[in-house]
């Protein structure tokens, strides 16, 4: 029995290794490319003879990555904050009080996920220009928050409905506490797992956003990472080595975030949202 | 005396009618109304014009663009592609995602690392992934052809065939986002109490039987979530297509969102682009609501 | 209490925009000139940046903000035009009259217009004399070729289509297929559009015996006359004279392949020669005018706008914008820009020592014709030409079908531009 188990464990480990290798390819290619000099067209599978990290410093300076990092962190951070606070707040009544109004509002919020971004693009841009808010951090934060609000509310409401026992809130209500106090002192702390989940999903998408950032954050001062990297791709510009280096650096925070939140992430999806 | 007091006390606290607590979702609703709904509604007005996208003048043409949409042969061919991307990707992502989840739910040492690696492509900016795929598939000096060369196989131009490249796009999309499906299934698997399996083991049920009688039914909620998210994402697919083929050759691999983009920015046809957009939103709405209804029904059936 | 808390939070967020706006309007004493350009290579952008810095030194009250959106330039400009929010100065890259016309300020009262190259008159001016933009350089396009390869196989630069095809066949034979005779970056539709656009001129314009100008302008052109170009391209593909991955190759590969001597000919040129020389100085790239098609006809340079500066007519900084243009038009500065971009200046009083100077001198008697699609085709046809090129190369459409499709789109786009605010062909 033991021997059979070890053998099947070995097979499974081998399979896992194959899967890991298969999915590692994109990164491997990024790594080899980022270490090559301009004009080195050797195969993407091999590392260059002399490895230098020169590309990283060059990419950092040329694209002012330091500045872009800060901008991207501000926008992603504040958007996540707003999504968590107002998304959970909105999800509460939609999960607990199923009045006709609430059902309609819920359906409206969810159906927004189907809107093609391009349809809203020009009217939105015009609106922002008229409000004088182009090239501000605030507008990027607002737009990103609005864009991921439906998904946030969807996940939060499912979690609240199926995992948080009503008894706790009802007990507090009987004690005479106000709704807001009940929500923030009792319900919200229990939402930690799903909060982490939402954090990691929306943060990744906002961090990597290109379609909105390119139009609304044109000024160099407020540029985000993806826009800064896009600057390396001219029609004839051949700066693949710099792009790869910049991409690796830009990816790091998100990888760290995922590793840190991983345990919450899976726990969050296992309760509530799954039973949606 | 105390009993009466208690009754009165309870009566006072129980609300007569459930208040909808609408004020709690005001900020969220407001943000969505201002930044998503209002521009969208204004955007749909464009479908009734022949606007080219950049001039300050245009004309109202009533339903002409909608008539055009239905008589344009490209529309149906692209709708077919979009359905392929949406439903095809969803199918493969869910099958492979489930397999990965089953594999990486076993207690092997490398499971955490492997899970992370599978999820990594989700975290790379689509802009960059586009370039990576280009490095991989390009005919001259692409990584794939280098690899084939090692085995003595002559280089192939993987993305050139108009009938084949939509399928390649489906595969790449699956490869890239299968991590999400995997994570959802992992969570679902971990929420199934181990006692169920132990009981079934004692009853003499084999592995396969256990899967179909215990695992699958209890995974239905995860399946529903994955289905809805993947269908919407797949139908709206954009970045992967642009990176690999830009919708080409011609319009062979366009999806509705890339076609819309093309019409608006390349063909100076903003009115028609917006019309295609409405059509796309409509298709996604129908399909995702059907999927949601179907899987919710299956959920209650199986539980 | 609960309501006020929520309102309070919302108010905080409304104040946020104020904070950001405050910071950016700190420099109200200085005027900021926002300039958008399509310049794509580092050498071009750096030269422009240096000149802008010099301008700032001369005008201490003006700050110049340069933007090079690269591939996203056109998209951004479209969105900004739709919102009537253009940059103070922008590049019209060939579309000064047809697309950007309604937003451009009239520059006719500026000094440099006296020295405007006559080749650009029909492109940058309209009948009433409005000048749409300042040309930083002008296109003089034909075919770019690898001199080393042609010398190696003893091939003279071709002047007719027949000679061109012969040259391609020779290269394929003698290199045993290791060198691509004629290379297309077909992932980008514009590669094929470029082929059609450039060769349409010798096919339909330059030869007096085959002149379709009138028919094109008044809409009676028979598109079956266009089939020749599709047939030739298809023939080239069948004989493997163009690259196997013509439909999927990307422009960014061009420099790398040319620098490895793997390509003989490609359309146009741009700064290809300079860029290749940077990587491999042993590879010499030259250019020739577009070969003639009809017997007895001469090759032709295809010309027009490449990089320009147009001023937004509603700009609050219009005066400063014009000052910037005047600065760029100074002969010394114009010469610098022209040399950085490997193309002749748009002014007659500027003689630039550009990369292809020898080639341009060798062919100096060759005439220049403006880009075919900008003069004779309705706005939007360029994209269609690209699409059908891809469909031809991928065997989706046959040459005759292509001509039919082009005919249909031609009609539709003509009708569309008649009802829109386009200022073409005035």
From TrEMBL, chain A:
Transmembrane portions of the chain: 12-31, 69-92, 104-125, 137-159, 180-207, 240-261
Superkingdom of the source species: Bacteria
GO BP: transmembrane transport
Keyword Transmembrane attached: yes
Annotated keywords: Cell membrane, Membrane, Transmembrane, Transmembrane helix, Transport
Membrane topology note: Multi-pass membrane protein
A matching Pfam family: BPD_transp_1
InterPro entries: MetI-like, MetI-like_sf
Localisation: Cell membrane
A cellular component term, taken from the record's GO annotations: plasma membrane
Record-stated family: Belongs to the binding-protein-dependent transport system permease family.
PANTHER family, A to Z: ABC TRANSPORTER PERMEASE PROTEIN MG189-RELATED, ABC TRANSPORTER PERMEASE PROTEIN MG189-RELATED-RELATED
Name listed for the protein in its UniProt record: Carbohydrate ABC transporter permease
Species name: Bacillus subtilis
UniProtKB/TrEMBL annotation, chain B:
Membrane listed as a keyword: yes
InterPro entries in UniProt: ABC_transporter_permease, MetI-like, MetI-like_sf
Keyword Secreted applies: no
TM ranges: 21-41, 83-104, 116-136, 167-189, 210-232, 270-295
Compartment list: Cell membrane
PROSITE patterns (UniProt xref): ABC_TM1
CDD domains: TM_PBP2 (cd06261)
GO cellular component: plasma membrane
Superkingdom: Bacteria
Domain ABC transmembrane type-1: 79-291
Its membrane topology: Multi-pass membrane protein
Entry keywords, A to Z: Cell membrane, Membrane, Transmembrane, Transmembrane helix, Transport
Stored PANTHER family: ABC TRANSPORTER PERMEASE PROTEIN, INNER MEMBRANE ABC TRANSPORTER PERMEASE PROTEIN YCJO
Family in the record: Belongs to the binding-protein-dependent transport system permease family.
The protein's name in its UniProt record: ABC transmembrane type-1 domain-containing protein
């Amino acid at each position: 029995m033991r021997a059979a188990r070890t053998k099947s464990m070995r097979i499974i480990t081998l399979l896992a290794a194959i899967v890991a290798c298969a999915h590692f390819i994109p990164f491997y290619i990024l790594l080899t490319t980022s270490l090559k000099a301009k004009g080195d067209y050797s195969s993407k599978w091999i590392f260059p003879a002399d490895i230098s990290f020169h590309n990283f410093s060059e990419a950092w300076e040329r694209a002012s990555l330091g500045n872009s990092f800060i901008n991207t962190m501000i926008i992603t951070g504040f958007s996540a904050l707003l999504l968590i606070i107002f998304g959970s707040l909105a999800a509460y009544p939609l999960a607990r009080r199923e009045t006709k109004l609430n059902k309609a509002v819920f359906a409206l919020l969810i159906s927004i996920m189907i809107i093609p971004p391009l349809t809203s693009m020009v009217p939105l841009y015009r609106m922002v220009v008229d409000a004088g808010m182009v090239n501000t951090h605030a507008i990027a934060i607002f737009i990103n928050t609005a864009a991921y609000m439906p998904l946030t509310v969807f996940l939060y409401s499912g979690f609240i409905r199926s995992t948080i026992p009503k008894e706790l809130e009802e007990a507090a209500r009987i004690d005479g506490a106000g709704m807001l106090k009940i929500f923030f002192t009792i319900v919200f702390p229990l939402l930690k797992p799903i909060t982490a989940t939402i954090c990691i999903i929306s943060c990744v998408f906002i961090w990597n956003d290109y379609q909105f950032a390119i139009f609304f954050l044109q000024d160099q001062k407020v540029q985000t990472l993806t826009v800064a990297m896009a600057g390396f791709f001219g029609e004839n510009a051949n700066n693949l080595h710099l792009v790869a280096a910049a991409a690796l650096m830009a990816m790091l925070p998100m990888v760290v975030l995922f590793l840190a939140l991983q345990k919450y992430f899976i726990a969050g999806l296992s309760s509530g949202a799954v039973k949606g | 005396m105390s009993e009466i007091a208690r009754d009165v006390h309870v009566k006072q606290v129980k609300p007569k009618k459930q208040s909808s607590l609408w004020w709690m979702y005001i900020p969220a609703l407001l943000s969505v109304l201002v930044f998503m709904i209002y521009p969208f509604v204004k955007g749909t007005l464009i479908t009734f014009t022949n606007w080219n996208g950049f001039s300050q003048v245009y004309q109202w043409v009533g339903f002409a663009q909608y008539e055009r949409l239905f008589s344009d042969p490209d529309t149906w061919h692209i709708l077919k592609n979009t359905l392929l991307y949406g439903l095809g990707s969803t199918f493969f992502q869910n099958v492979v995602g489930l397999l990965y989840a089953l594999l990486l739910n076993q207690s092997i040492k490398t499971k955490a690392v492997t899970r992370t690696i599978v999820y990594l492509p989700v975290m790379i900016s689509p802009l960059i992934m586009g370039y990576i795929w280009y490095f991989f598939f390009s005919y001259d000096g692409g990584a794939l052809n280098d690899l084939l060369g090692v085995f003595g196989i002559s280089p192939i131009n993987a993305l050139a065939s108009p009938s084949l490249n939509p399928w390649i796009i489906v595969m790449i999309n699956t490869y890239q986002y299968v991590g999400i499906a995997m994570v959802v299934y992992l969570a679902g698997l971990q929420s199934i109490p181990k006692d169920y399996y132990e009981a079934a083991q004692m009853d003499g049920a084999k592995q396969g039987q256990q899967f179909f009688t215990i695992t699958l039914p209890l995974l239905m909620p995860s399946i529903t979530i994955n289905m809805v998210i993947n269908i919407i994402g797949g139908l709206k697919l954009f970045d992967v297509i642009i990176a690999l083929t830009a919708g080409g050759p011609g319009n062979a691999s366009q999806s509705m969102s890339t076609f819309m983009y093309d019409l608006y920015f390349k063909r100076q046809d903003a009115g028609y682009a917006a019309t295609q957009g409405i059509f796309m939103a409509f298709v996604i709405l129908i399909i995702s609501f059907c999927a949601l209804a179907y899987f919710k029904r299956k959920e209650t059936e199986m539980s | 209490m609960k309501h006020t808390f929520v309102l309070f939070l919302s108010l905080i967020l409304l104040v946020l925009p104020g904070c950001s706006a405050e910071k950016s309007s700190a420099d109200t004493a200085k005027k900021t000139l926002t300039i958008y350009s399509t310049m794509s290579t580092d050498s071009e952008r750096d030269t422009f940046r240096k000149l802008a810095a010099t301008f700032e030194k001369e005008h201490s009250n003006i700050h110049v903000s340069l933007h090079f959106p690269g591939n996203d330039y056109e998209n951004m400009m479209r969105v900004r035009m739709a919102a009537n929010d253009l940059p103070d100065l922008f590049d019209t890259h060939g579309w000064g009259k047809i697309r950007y016309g309604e937003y451009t300020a009239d520059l006719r009262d500026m000094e440099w217009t006296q020295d405007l190259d006559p080749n650009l008159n029909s492109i940058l001016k309209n009948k009433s004399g409005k000048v749409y933009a300042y040309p930083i350089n002008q296109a003089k396009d034909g075919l770019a070729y690898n001199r080393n390869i042609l010398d190696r196989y003893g091939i003279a630069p071709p002047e007719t289509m027949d000679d061109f095809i012969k040259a391609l066949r020779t290269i394929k034979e003698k290199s045993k297929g290791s060198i691509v005779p004629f290379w297309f970056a077909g992932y980008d539709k514009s590669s094929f559009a470029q082929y059609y656009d450039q060769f349409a001129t010798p096919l339909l314009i330059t030869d007096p015996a085959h002149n379709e100008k009138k028919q094109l302008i008044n809409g009676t052109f028979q598109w079956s006359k266009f089939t020749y170009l599709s047939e030739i391209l298809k023939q080239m593909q069948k004989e493997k004279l163009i690259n196997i991955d013509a439909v999927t190759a990307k422009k960014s590969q061009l420099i790398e392949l040319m620098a490895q001597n793997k390509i003989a000919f490609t359309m146009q040129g741009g700064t290809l020669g300079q860029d290749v020389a940077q990587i491999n100085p042993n590879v010499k790239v030259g250019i020739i005018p577009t070969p003639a098609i009809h017997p007895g006809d001469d090759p032709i340079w295809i010309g027009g706008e490449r990089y320009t500066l147009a001023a937004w007519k509603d700009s609050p900084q219009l005066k400063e914008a014009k000052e910037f243009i005047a600065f760029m038009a100074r002969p010394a500065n114009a010469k610098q820009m022209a040399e950085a971009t490997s193309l002749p200046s748009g002014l007659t009083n500027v003689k630039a020592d550009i990369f292809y100077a020898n080639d341009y001198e060798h062919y100096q008697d060759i005439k220049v014709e403006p880009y075919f699609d900008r003069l004779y085709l309705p706005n939007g046809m360029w994209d269609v030409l690209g699409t059908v090129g891809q469909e031809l190369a991928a065997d989706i459409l046959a040459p005759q079908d292509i001509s039919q499709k082009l005919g249909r789109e031609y009609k539709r786009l003509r009708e569309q531009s008649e009802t829109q605010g386009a200022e073409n062909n005035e």
